[in-house]
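Practice set, problem 2.
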Amino acid sequence: MAVTAKWFGKAPMKLLNKEVDFDTDVIKVMLCTSAYAPDQDVHAYKDAVTNEVTGAGYTTGGATLANKTMDYTGATNVVKLDANDVSWANSTITARYAVIYDDTPATDATKPILGYVDFGEDKVSSNGTFTIQWHADGIFTVTAA
């Protein structure tokens, strides 16, 4: 299943205020259980994210996004932020959400969160590979209108 993340409402402000440099900062994705409730209007930093998954094959803090790209398509006025799909091999975990955040700042209270994916139900791996396959249109898009 290909997924596209939803922006947290304050994420564009974090990008425009230079708190996040998508190209050079360490951008990560962490997994959370169904007990986490994303709040697009209130959550702005990693310290607001709760109920990170635990289990074999998963490291606290999640995985780093590799080969990040930003592209602009003039015909549609769309900026696309993308990266390689992410997977946790030999894992035994249950996740409902994936949260994308900037891991470069020193503390959770200063690490901006960008967006999240709601899988729609718990996704489970049992001594297998848990994979997030980003949508062909990218992780995030911004349309200049």
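Problem 2, part (b): a different protein.
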Amino acid sequence: MLRDILTPADCARCRKCCTFEKYEVWETPLIPQELKEKIEQRFPSVHFIKKGETGAYIFNMSEEWDDAAECFSCPALDPKKGCILGELKPFDCDTWPYRIMDMQGQLVIGLSSLCPELYAKPLEELVKELENGLAEKIYSYAEKYPQVVRPYEHGHIILNVKVMKSEDNQTLI
């Protein structure tokens, strides 16, 4: 989804978004039940954990702990091929490192600092990508699956704020 600003080669070289240190586990993709069921059907070896009362799931990465690297790896990450999920890749993964978050009741799209490739790009380029339709896709997905909206996490640069309209079409930011 981000191929205009992030090449597959960049991702293949880094894979930081597929591995998590203990303090980064909150960044694991949130997966709606519908997608979870599809992934389980095609990849029975991938297991999930229900994320509280949100109705979303996360990958069970406790089985993927790497003592040497002191991190968890996504169970869908093949060391040689990359992500095995193809079209079943979670939306969070497709839009990484953009994050849809709730900041005091307002939907915002932030940028995680954990992606070295995008974090090094000019902010204008990242904002332009959102303005070229990506923001609307992210907000639409969040509307359909509100359980994937995360609370705002300190440190994310906010790149876009959803403009709220009142019944009489007045802007409410």
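Answer key, part (b): Confidence is low (pLDDT under 50) at residues 168-173. The chain has five helices and twelve strands.
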